[in-house]
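Query form — protein PAR1 protein

QUESTION: What is the three-dimensional structure of this chain?
INPUT:
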Amino acid sequence: MASNFTFTTFTIFALAFSLTLQATLGEIECENLSQETCSFAVSSAGKRCVLEKRVKRSGEEAYTCKTSEIEAENVKDHMETEQCIKACGLDRKSLGISSDSLLESTFTHKLCSPHCYQSCPNVVDLYFNLAAGEGVFLPKLCEVQGVNARRGMAELRSSGIVAPGPVHSLHFGNIEPTVSPSPN
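ANSWER: The C-alpha coordinates for PAR1 protein are given below.
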Protein backbone atom coordinates (compact mmCIF):
# COMPACT_ATOMS: atom_id res chain seq x y z
CA MET A 1 0.00 0.00 0.00
CA ALA A 2 2.90 2.36 0.72
CA SER A 3 4.31 1.76 -2.76
CA ASN A 4 0.89 2.58 -4.28
CA PHE A 5 0.89 5.90 -2.36
CA THR A 6 4.45 6.59 -3.52
CA PHE A 7 3.54 5.85 -7.14
CA THR A 8 0.47 8.13 -6.95
CA THR A 9 2.51 10.92 -5.37
CA PHE A 10 5.22 10.50 -7.99
CA THR A 11 2.62 10.61 -10.79
CA ILE A 12 1.12 13.82 -9.44
CA PHE A 13 4.53 15.48 -9.17
CA ALA A 14 5.51 14.28 -12.65
CA LEU A 15 2.32 15.75 -14.13
CA ALA A 16 2.81 19.05 -12.31
CA PHE A 17 6.45 19.18 -13.41
CA SER A 18 5.58 18.45 -17.04
CA LEU A 19 2.97 21.23 -17.07
CA THR A 20 5.45 23.64 -15.50
CA LEU A 21 8.17 22.58 -17.93
CA GLN A 22 5.79 22.91 -20.87
CA ALA A 23 4.87 26.44 -19.80
CA THR A 24 8.52 27.32 -19.21
CA LEU A 25 9.63 26.04 -22.60
CA GLY A 26 6.83 27.87 -24.36
CA GLU A 27 5.11 24.87 -25.87
CA ILE A 28 1.50 25.41 -24.87
CA GLU A 29 -0.85 24.34 -27.63
CA CYS A 30 -4.52 24.64 -26.74
CA GLU A 31 -5.42 21.40 -28.50
CA ASN A 32 -3.06 19.50 -26.18
CA LEU A 33 -4.56 20.85 -22.95
CA SER A 34 -7.00 18.90 -20.82
CA GLN A 35 -10.46 20.04 -19.76
CA GLU A 36 -9.00 20.92 -16.36
CA THR A 37 -6.30 23.25 -17.73
CA CYS A 38 -7.83 24.69 -20.91
CA SER A 39 -9.89 27.68 -19.84
CA PHE A 40 -7.96 30.91 -19.26
CA ALA A 41 -4.76 29.52 -20.81
CA VAL A 42 -2.82 31.29 -23.56
CA SER A 43 -0.96 29.37 -26.26
CA SER A 44 2.64 29.91 -27.33
CA ALA A 45 1.24 31.88 -30.28
CA GLY A 46 -0.51 34.27 -27.87
CA LYS A 47 -4.02 33.01 -28.69
CA ARG A 48 -6.49 32.30 -25.92
CA CYS A 49 -7.63 28.73 -25.33
CA VAL A 50 -11.33 27.97 -25.08
CA LEU A 51 -13.15 24.86 -23.88
CA GLU A 52 -15.78 23.54 -26.28
CA LYS A 53 -18.41 20.85 -25.86
CA ARG A 54 -19.77 18.65 -28.56
CA VAL A 55 -22.38 15.93 -28.29
CA LYS A 56 -21.61 12.67 -30.03
CA ARG A 57 -24.30 10.74 -31.87
CA SER A 58 -24.50 8.42 -28.88
CA GLY A 59 -25.53 11.38 -26.75
CA GLU A 60 -22.22 11.39 -24.89
CA GLU A 61 -20.69 14.81 -24.25
CA ALA A 62 -17.07 15.35 -25.27
CA TYR A 63 -14.97 18.35 -24.26
CA THR A 64 -12.06 19.62 -26.31
CA CYS A 65 -9.71 22.53 -25.95
CA LYS A 66 -9.44 24.75 -29.01
CA THR A 67 -7.39 27.75 -30.02
CA SER A 68 -9.60 30.83 -30.33
CA GLU A 69 -8.98 33.82 -32.57
CA ILE A 70 -8.78 36.07 -29.51
CA GLU A 71 -5.25 37.28 -28.88
CA ALA A 72 -3.91 38.05 -25.44
CA GLU A 73 -1.92 41.25 -25.08
CA ASN A 74 1.69 40.67 -24.01
CA VAL A 75 0.89 37.15 -22.76
CA LYS A 76 2.15 33.88 -24.23
CA ASP A 77 2.64 30.39 -22.83
CA HIS A 78 0.44 31.00 -19.81
CA MET A 79 -1.79 28.70 -17.82
CA GLU A 80 -3.83 30.58 -15.22
CA THR A 81 -3.15 29.67 -11.60
CA GLU A 82 -5.76 28.16 -9.33
CA GLN A 83 -5.31 31.16 -7.01
CA CYS A 84 -6.44 33.51 -9.80
CA ILE A 85 -9.29 31.24 -10.84
CA LYS A 86 -10.60 31.30 -7.28
CA ALA A 87 -9.89 34.99 -6.56
CA CYS A 88 -11.59 36.12 -9.77
CA GLY A 89 -14.64 33.89 -9.35
CA LEU A 90 -13.95 31.89 -12.51
CA ASP A 91 -14.76 28.31 -13.40
CA ARG A 92 -12.32 26.12 -15.35
CA LYS A 93 -15.25 24.23 -16.81
CA SER A 94 -16.84 27.30 -18.36
CA LEU A 95 -17.54 26.91 -22.05
CA GLY A 96 -16.51 29.74 -24.32
CA ILE A 97 -16.31 33.27 -22.99
CA SER A 98 -18.85 36.07 -22.90
CA SER A 99 -19.28 39.56 -21.53
CA ASP A 100 -22.56 38.40 -19.95
CA SER A 101 -20.69 37.51 -16.75
CA LEU A 102 -19.94 41.23 -16.30
CA LEU A 103 -23.66 41.75 -15.71
CA GLU A 104 -23.52 39.58 -12.60
CA SER A 105 -22.68 41.77 -9.62
CA THR A 106 -21.14 38.85 -7.68
CA PHE A 107 -18.72 38.12 -10.52
CA THR A 108 -17.87 41.79 -11.09
CA HIS A 109 -17.22 42.22 -7.37
CA LYS A 110 -14.68 39.36 -7.42
CA LEU A 111 -13.10 40.53 -10.70
CA CYS A 112 -12.66 44.04 -9.28
CA SER A 113 -11.32 42.81 -5.93
CA PRO A 114 -7.64 43.56 -5.22
CA HIS A 115 -6.89 39.81 -5.08
CA CYS A 116 -7.96 39.47 -8.73
CA TYR A 117 -7.56 42.89 -10.31
CA GLN A 118 -4.05 43.52 -9.00
CA SER A 119 -2.73 39.94 -9.07
CA CYS A 120 -4.16 38.32 -12.21
CA PRO A 121 -3.23 40.44 -15.24
CA ASN A 122 -4.17 37.73 -17.76
CA VAL A 123 -7.74 37.56 -16.45
CA VAL A 124 -8.04 41.33 -16.18
CA ASP A 125 -6.76 41.75 -19.75
CA LEU A 126 -9.35 39.28 -21.01
CA TYR A 127 -12.28 40.96 -19.26
CA PHE A 128 -10.93 44.45 -20.04
CA ASN A 129 -11.22 43.58 -23.73
CA LEU A 130 -14.65 41.98 -23.30
CA ALA A 131 -15.92 45.08 -21.49
CA ALA A 132 -14.40 47.34 -24.15
CA GLY A 133 -16.29 45.37 -26.79
CA GLU A 134 -19.47 46.39 -24.95
CA GLY A 135 -18.38 50.03 -24.81
CA VAL A 136 -17.47 49.89 -21.13
CA PHE A 137 -14.15 50.88 -19.54
CA LEU A 138 -13.40 48.13 -16.98
CA PRO A 139 -11.50 50.36 -14.50
CA LYS A 140 -14.50 52.71 -14.44
CA LEU A 141 -16.90 49.78 -13.98
CA CYS A 142 -14.79 48.58 -11.04
CA GLU A 143 -14.77 52.08 -9.57
CA VAL A 144 -18.55 52.34 -9.90
CA GLN A 145 -18.94 48.78 -8.56
CA GLY A 146 -17.85 49.93 -5.12
CA VAL A 147 -20.00 53.04 -5.07
CA ASN A 148 -23.14 52.24 -7.00
CA ALA A 149 -23.31 48.76 -8.48
CA ARG A 150 -26.72 49.32 -10.08
CA ARG A 151 -25.41 52.33 -11.98
CA GLY A 152 -22.45 50.31 -13.25
CA MET A 153 -24.68 47.51 -14.45
CA ALA A 154 -26.99 50.01 -16.17
CA GLU A 155 -23.98 51.48 -17.99
CA LEU A 156 -22.88 48.06 -19.12
CA ARG A 157 -26.34 47.04 -20.34
CA SER A 158 -26.60 50.22 -22.38
CA SER A 159 -23.08 49.72 -23.78
CA GLY A 160 -21.95 53.13 -22.63
CA ILE A 161 -22.63 56.01 -20.34
CA VAL A 162 -26.23 56.21 -19.27
CA ALA A 163 -27.87 59.32 -20.66
CA PRO A 164 -28.84 61.66 -17.84
CA GLY A 165 -32.36 62.91 -17.35
CA PRO A 166 -33.43 66.49 -18.03
CA VAL A 167 -31.49 67.81 -15.02
CA HIS A 168 -28.95 70.37 -16.27
CA SER A 169 -26.68 70.45 -13.22
CA LEU A 170 -25.37 66.86 -13.38
CA HIS A 171 -21.64 66.41 -13.97
CA PHE A 172 -19.75 63.15 -14.50
CA GLY A 173 -16.15 64.06 -13.75
CA ASN A 174 -14.94 65.92 -16.84
CA ILE A 175 -17.91 64.75 -18.92
CA GLU A 176 -20.85 67.10 -19.04
CA PRO A 177 -24.17 65.61 -20.08
CA THR A 178 -25.71 66.92 -23.24
CA VAL A 179 -29.39 67.69 -23.24
CA SER A 180 -31.29 67.79 -26.51
CA PRO A 181 -33.27 70.95 -27.09
CA SER A 182 -36.97 70.42 -26.61
CA PRO A 183 -39.19 70.84 -29.68
CA ASN A 184 -41.25 74.06 -29.66
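ADDITIONAL NOTE: Strands lie at 41-42, 47-55, 61-71, 78-79.
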